[in-house]
Amino acid sequence: MNPLPDYDHEPVLLSALLTPHRSLSGRGFAVVMIFLAAVSFVTGMAFLMMGAWPVLGFFGLDVALVYVAFRINYARAAAFEEIIVTPSDLHVRKVGPRGEVTEWRFNPLWVRLDRDDEEEFGITRLFLVFRGRRLSIAGFLGPDEKASFSKALGSALAAARRGAARPAPT
User: Fold this and answer.
1) For residue 31, how many other CB atoms are within 10 A of its CB?
2) Which of 66, 99, 149, 158 has its CA 20 to 30 A from that of 48?
C-alpha cells in the first residue's frame, strides 16, 4: 500500500477515512454460527429419526452457506476510502477488499460535489464531478451518513475555493 502524500506544507481542510459498517464482531459471528449449527443439528436429527435422512444433509449445507456468506462479507469489510482536502489538492484513495489501490488527485477549485437523492431514502449516491466525469464516493455509507459527509466535504471544498486555512463553522 502506498503511503499518503505529505500534507505538512499546507493545512488539511478535511481528512476522512470511510469504512464499511460491520455490526457483528468476531465473537458475535462465532455465537451465531454455533447457535445455527446446534439448531440445524437438532432439527436434522429429528428428521433423521423420522426416516427423512436426506434432510440432515440440507441442514448441514445451510450452515455451510451461511458461513461462506459471512466470510465473504468480512473479507469485503477490508475495503475503505480515504479523502483528503487541502486548499490546493483533493486526494481520493480507494482500497478494495483485496488490497488493490486506486487513487485520484484533483484541484479542489474545479471539483463539484453531486448527489442522487430519493425522496423516501435521502442521498443514495455521492459523486465528485471533474471535467464532465463522475467519481462515485462513499458508496458504503448509509443515507444519513452520506448527508453528513456531503455537508463536511462541501464545506471543505468551499473553504478551498475561498483560499481559507480552515473550513467555515457550520
Assistant:
1) 12
2) 66
CA dihedral sign of residues 158, 163, 164, 166 = positive
Q: Hunting for cell 448527489 — which residue is that?
A: 115
Residues 154, 157, 159, 162, CA torsion sign? negative
Q: How far apart are CA 137 and CA 154, in angstroms?
A: 13
Contact 126, 99 (CB under 8 A): no
User: May I ask the CATH architecture of the domain 14-20+79-162?
Assistant: Roll (2.30)
Domain residue spans of the chain: 14-20+79-162, 26-76
Closest C-alpha to 161, from 126, 111, 127, 115: 111
The DSSP bridge partners found for residue 84 are 15, 91
Under a CB-based contact definition with an 8 Å cutoff, are residues 13 and 166 in contact? yes
Q: Give me the residue label for grid cell 503511503.
A: 3
Report the interhelical angle of 26-49 vs 54-76 (nearest 10°): 170
- Whole-number Å distance between alpha carbons of 12 and 140: 24
C-alpha cell, 103: 487513487
Segment 90-142, tens digit of pLDDT: 999 999 988 899 999 999 999 999 998 888 888 899 999 998 899 999 988 88
